[in-house]
Amino acid sequence: MKKICVIGGGAAGMACAVLLSRKGYSVTILERGDRLGRKLSATGNGQGNVTNIHMGPEYYFSDDPEKVGRILSRYPWESTVGFLESMGGIFLPDTRGRVYPASRQASAVTDLFRREIGNAGVDVVFGAQVSSVAYDGVFRISWGGGQMCADATVLAAGGKAAKHFGTDGSAYALAEKFGHTVTPLSPALVQLKCDPKEIRGLRGIRTEAGLTLVRGGKEVCRTRGDVLFTESGLSGDAVFRASSYVQRGDTVCLDFLPSVPAERVREAAERGGLLCIVNNGLGRMLAAKRDAVGLVKGFPLTVTGTLGFDYAQVTRGGIPLGETDDSLMSRKRGGLFFAGEILNVDGVCGGYNLQWAFASAHAVAEGI
């Protein structure tokens, strides 16, 4: 029986382990933390946004979008839902296509995996931060206090974002030992920083808004959803989607009533100010400015940066897809596979990154 080592117990690693155990392989997960699926349990604001019915390579950033498209077409969102429901539960889309467990509990999705992994007899080693992976006919994997041999190894140890979940970027070095490169890394799906003077008094206000990202007078992207004013800038799902495109110095322009024409806003404001038009706290701040009504439909803020990797949901960059085949096996070392965020693939907000985790796990399992 082939022995498979999966390095990393996140969404991609757990999915690989389940799929490979179902194929009859002996699987060991090496997890540096003290439990599986910590990051998965926090996804979708704790509600478990596992995929999206609006799926395609256009929602992803990568060095090889065509390969992303081929893998997504082989393992579409329906496959993800079928895979998850094969372990239990019911998964349903919302009006925006985001798919959640019916319970709206991300931790319950993690519990499905943990139960399946336990029932399948997958060996899980906690506290195993891998220090080296070598090959001399078999893979030899070492970590503090242990070592093992494997016929194939899956690197599913994540990227550099959210190091409190155990993803600090150290796993890239394991791939580099086999001749792989790492593209430039940057945080994605992350809060934006703005000049504190521009948002003074707005901390804690949450509102739906249209968001347009502008660079050099040209529109870069346009999103719509929740916007949350924080102490340092902006958060919320509309902001996270725009953060995938943002550069320092860009302008974020917020429309606080994207479904209402400007003329109607102006007419209503002439009768009663901004009451019942925008949040009262926001209205007081806008009323102190010139052309307050105009700012309701176009409130500009300059992006001074992001909160960085510690607060990012995913990593932009990683092992280039061009250094793998269509089963995500290394072109440098046969039997070495990659799954999930460690690869140079990241998606916009809305379940796309978990879809990549699950689709890449399927590609790896089929390749093995």
Q: Which tags fit this structure?
A:
368 residues, alpha+beta, FAD/NAD(P)-binding domain, Elongation Factor Tu (Ef-tu), domain 3, 2 domains, five-stranded parallel beta sheet, 10 helices, 27% helix, 27% strand
Brief summary:
The chain is α+β, with helices and mostly antiparallel strands and 368 residues long.
Shape: elongated
Q: Structural class, please?
A: alpha+beta
Strands across the major sheet, in which order? Answer: 13-16-15-14-17-18
Largest sheet: 6 strands, antiparallel, barrel
Number of domains: 2
N-to-C CA distance: 13 Å
Relative helix content: 25-40%
CATH superfamily of the largest domain: FAD/NAD(P)-binding domain
Which ranges are low-confidence, i.e. pLDDT below 50, for 5 or more consecutive residues? none
Return the CATH class of the largest domain. Alpha Beta
Proportion of strand residues: 25-35%
Q: What's the Cα radius of gyration?
A: 22 Å
- Kindly report the average pLDDT value: 95
CATH-level-2 architecture of the largest domain? 3-Layer(bba) Sandwich
As for the CATH topology of the largest domain, it is: FAD/NAD(P)-binding domain
How do the strands and helices of this protein lay out in sequence?
Blueprint lengths: L2 E5 L3 H12 L3 E6 L19 E2 L7 E3 L2 H10 L2 H11 L3 E3 L4 E4 L4 H14 L3 E4 L3 E6 L3 E5 L2 E5 L1 E4 L16 H5 L9 E3 L3 E3 L11 E10 L2 E12 L3 E3 L1 H7 L7 E5 L6 H11 L7 H8 L4 H6 L1 E8 L7 E3 L19 E3 L6 E3 L4 H16 L1
Parallel strand pairs: 1-2, 1-11, 2-7, 11-20
Antiparallel strand pairs: 3-6, 4-21, 5-6, 8-9, 9-10, 12-19, 13-16, 13-18, 14-15, 14-17, 15-16, 17-18
